[in-house]
Amino acid sequence: MNAPRKKIKRFLPEPVWNVARSAYHGVIHATQWPEATFHPWRRDSIKRLAELKDSHARQRCFIIGNGPSLKHTDLTKLRHEYSFGMNRIYLLFNKLGFTTSYYVSVNSLVIEQCLADILCLPIPCFLSWRSRDAFHENEAGMALYPNDNTIFLHTTYTGPKFAVDARGRLWESATVTYVALQLAYFMGFETVILIGVDHSFTTQGKPNTTIISKGDDPDHFSGNYFGKGFRWQLPDLEMSERGYRMAHEAYSKAGRQVLDATVGGKLEVFPKVEYESLF
Fold first, then answer.
1. Cα–Cα distance between 61 and 177 in angstroms, integer?
2. Is residue 61 part of a domain?
3. Residue-by-residue pLDDT tens, the chain, 279 positions
4. 7 in a structural domain
5. Which residue, 234, 230, 106, 77, is CA-closest to 177?
6. Cα(104)–Cα(179) distance, rounded to whole angstroms?
7. How far apart are CA 87 and CA 37, in angstroms?
8. What's the structural domain count of the chain?
9. What DSSP character marks residue 272?
10. Nearest Cα residue to 91 out of 53, 118, 73, 119
11. DSSP code for 50
12. φ, ψ for residue 146 (rounded to 5)?
């Protein structure tokens, strides 16, 4: 929170502050709505999302985080499972010999730096509508524009909620995993299993601060994940947990479930299950 907002909050009663904040975010969302609804890229995305609604009813899927625990997880067992991969998960695809079913990335820094790689993926790729400015012709003359696999999601940093309809606005909760949970719900998956969601980082600092990696990445499955020179944002685990609790509640109310099969994971929101026992 910036200094002016801190000063205002200090002098306002909490109920008044909460109403004012909600009203402010409501105005912001209202100004974003027209383009996020009527732009041709979004219109096409909304149509394609409609085709995916409840397309996986009564099925199960895996949402694959990118933590170091993946090095101790036999991912070959997922070859014939539905799965969501996120951010730089594609670094594993050649080694595995298969891709995830879906790909999700909403962080602007990741999309900006990895867009050429993302556009080569042969699977549906869900990207934040906020990242649309990254699509352009780069310095090498390569046209980086949406292709047949690109689906834009209207995601925001503010306005906490669990969206049951992915065609509208989705809250990010400081983690792409939360967006994937909302997508999986929208597609009708009955059981969602998390793996690689370690929920712990050795790199420390103020949440959401943008830093530049100085060397190998110790916080993901590969040292090259956010390797030297890569710009990324420090995690906000508290905000992520807030979203996870909302997801747990939404799935439970619908008679569905989210299980956590992360090897040695620190997240305590979802019921734990042994990964090997799932097969």
1. 13
2. yes
3. 555 555 555 665 666 544 444 554 556 666 777 789 989 999 999 999 999 999 999 999 999 999 999 999 999 999 999 999 999 999 999 999 999 999 999 999 999 999 999 999 999 999 999 999 899 776 666 678 999 999 999 999 999 999 999 999 999 999 999 999 999 999 999 999 999 999 999 999 999 999 999 999 999 999 999 999 999 999 999 999 999 999 999 999 999 999 999 999 999 999 999 999 999
4. no
5. 106
6. 8
7. 25
8. 1
9. B
10. 118
11. H
12. -55, 140
Asked if the structure places residue 9 within a domain, the reply is no
Question: Which residue type is seen at 128?
Answer: S
Q: What is the domain range of residue 97?
A: 14-278
The answer to whether the CB of 166 falls within 8 A of the CB of 153 is: yes
* CA–CA gap between residue 279 and residue 272 (Å, rounded): 15
What size, in residues, is the chain? 279
pTM: 0.90
Do residues 228 and 169 make contact, with C-beta atoms less than 8 angstroms apart? no
Tokens standing for residue 258: 């989210």
* CA dihedral of residues 154, 159, 161, 162 (deg, nearest 10): 20
Q: Is residue 3 part of a domain?
A: no
